[in-house]
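Usage

Read records sequentially. Each one opens with the input sequence:
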Amino acid sequence: MSLRYTADRTIVRCDQCPGQPILPTHREETDPRRCVRCQGEHRWLPQPHPDDHLCQVCRRECPTCQALTSNGDRCRACQGRCRTCSNPLPNRPDFASGITHVEPERRKDRRRKWNLTYFPRSWGWDQCDACQEAATAADPLRAVLAALPDKLVRACGGAVPPAVVETIYEELRWRSAVQLSARIERRWWRSWAGRPLTRSADGQQDGYRPDDVAVWLLAPADCAGRCEDGWHPAPPDRPDRDDTPCAVCNSGRVLTTPAAQEHPEDGEAGPAADRTVTEAVAYRPPMGECTGRSGSCGLPVLPPHTQCPACLDWPWCTSCRRRHNPAQANTCSTSSRP
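and closes with the structure output:
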């Protein structure tokens, strides 16, 4: 790396590239072997260096605000478009003009030693007025679409798939927009917020895409009782009543998410609703049974034992009518005698 100081800025060049190109940075401590923007510890550039000297992660970020984009161009907010519907944003006041300073002698909390500063609320400036009011809009479709997580919408390419809109129209026949929004929020934070939104298919499991996840967030529960993941919501005209558990799916215990069905635990049987009649009759809970009396005992036992105390002929405790393991103590664990 070579440096050249001018009156305006410091020019940084890469000595490892032919022609010593100028790097898009002014930091003197820049390591040309790493990404010129993030200088990450493990962001080593391949040889020969790319023309922009950026890693794969920074190449997908907005060059102005470093927001994640699909192609590395400027994000919608930096282009002056709504991040939800891509419509032009209205003219916003300057952020600095909205900052208000209160002199110490004019403070009402009597802490008249420092200035009090108020900053404007700018976290919704990257959305148009219609999208900001979508959660309380009269249109139920817009209200439900506003409840979709931004991370999921960006993964879908910035647009809502048509299958999601069809699912919303179908569910609005039975549920209100508030109930569908609560369903999305519940399923998102319970399962999908910390999981990958894309998976490739292989020989053992099916793949899915972000549009499939969006449909799963809105699809009704696989229950004949038409419950909300194991619960029946209280009637809208009776807000004083609590949600009641569903008696069909046993409060959601027999319901499983698509990921849980594709990744069952090792040695764990499937849900009760998916068993056939033969499997339900032959099913045994995951616990050990006593093998004594030629296998006719069947009492539950804990590992590493394979037989119950009666079949092992353990002696009785002298202080109470309980059997105890003679290899561990002369009395049972509940006896007060030594």
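Summary fields computed downstream for this record:
- The first helix runs from residue 129 to 132.
- Helices lie at 129-132, 140-146, 150-155, 162-171, 177-192, 210-218, 258-262, 277-282.
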